[in-house]
Amino acid sequence: MNKGKLIKEYFDRGEILVSPGAFDAMSARIIDKVGFPSVYVTGYGASANLLGKPDIGLLGMKEMVNHVGHISDAVEGAVIADADTGYGNALNVMRTVREFEKAGADAIQLEDQTWPKRCGHMEGKSIIPAKEMVGKIKAAVDARRSEDTLIIARTDAIAVEGYEEAIKRAKMCHEAGADILFVEAPEDSDQLSEIPKSIEDAHFMANMIEGGKTPVKSFNELEEMGYSLVIYPLSTLYIMTKAVKDLMEEMKLNNTPQSKVSEMASFSEFNEIVGLNEIRKKEEKYTKITSNKI
After folding, report:
1. For 80-86, what is the mean pLDDT?
2. Are 77 and 66 in contact (CB under 8 A)?
3. CA trace torsion 131, 136, 137, 142 (10° rounding)
4. DSSP secondary structure string, 144-202?
5. Which 8-state DSSP code applies to residue 292?
6. Cα 68 from Cα 84, distance rounded (Å)
7. How high is the mean pLDDT of the chain?
8. Is pLDDT of 289 > 80?
9. Candidate from 1-5, 151-155, 186-190 with smallest mean pLDDT
10. Upstream peptide bond of 116 is cis (omega within 30 degrees of 0)
């Protein structure tokens, strides 16, 4: 089943869908196992994970498609994927949508930045003309194989041309057929709360980045404001980065990781998360080989 139906079910119930960010298949699997119904494939996290580089447009379409495919294979829930600018013009967007869809993306996010793009909470962004973005959204809607594959239209116009221009662009994308609207980086709580009221019957997405330009709110607060979807794209990446850094500093100082063992997943817990038991059962079923337990 295309999990876009799952996303639509949340919208129909008027319940906010919470989608934590996954920077790799392992983080996605943990999100899924804990019980979140969707994961957000963050381009920022992908760049950090695959290249160890910032989110400044260094990854290409095929690299992101492969990344989305690995994450999609690791989870049961819906996959919401960052497709940056679509990697070119409207015709490139059509190919991007098809490739992301084949890789398992249930919702595909496209933005109106110029290429190379950068993280929406960084300085120095620039945007394409509004009419060009409308063409990209129309191309994306036409290109998808399934109507359950959702198109997310993101505008970065607040930082470049101001709040009113951002709302104008969101309205244009809504009229072009976007299923979800994403006005990136509102600068205060007033803007954040006004955005979902700006277009009747539209579904809006909120982006919560710790340390970013937008005040971070809880799921409940955002639902009360009228948001249909919220992503916390970098929480997992930031906590992993801090944990690994602390561990390495401890090892460097004391020649052992022993003091951090209580903060680690156990050997058995890790094997349970990655699904070793299920794999052992498949080995027995398909190969008739009973392996020794680890």
Report:
1. 98
2. no
3. 130
4. -S-TTSEEEEEE-HHHHH-HHHHHHHHHHHHHTT-SEEEE---SSHHHHHHGGGSSTT-
5. P
6. 13
7. 95
8. no
9. 1-5
10. yes
Paired tokens of 8? 């639509």
Q: What kind and span of H or E run contains 80?
A: strand 78-82
Angle 31-36-41 from CA coordinates, rounded to 5°: 55
The model's confidence at residue 123, banded by pLDDT at 50, 70 and 90, is confident
Q: Report yes or no: 42 and 28 within 8 Å, Cβ to Cβ.
A: no
pLDDT at 15 over 90: yes
Instruction: Collapse the DSSP code of 77 into the 3-class scheme (helix H, G, I; strand E, B; otherwise coil) and give the result.
Output: coil
Rounded mean pLDDT of 266-272? 95
Provide the 10 A C-beta neighbour count for residue 211. Answer: 8
Residue 141 tokens read as 């809607």
Closest of 136, 135, 141 to residue 84, by C-alpha? 136
Residues 6 or more apart in contact with residue 221 via CB below 8 angstroms? none
Q: What type of residue is 34?
A: V
26 or 287: whose pLDDT is higher? 26
Distances (CA, A) of 208 to 191, 211, 220: 14, 9, 13
* Token code pair at residue 88: 């070119």
pTM: 0.94
Residue 285 tokens read as 């079923």
Q: How far apart are CA 60 and CA 86, in angstroms?
A: 10
Whether the Cβ atoms of residue 169 and residue 112 lie closer than 8 Å to each other: yes
Is the pLDDT higher at 1 or at 252? 252
Pick from 204, 212, 231, 220: which is nearest to 39 by CA? 231
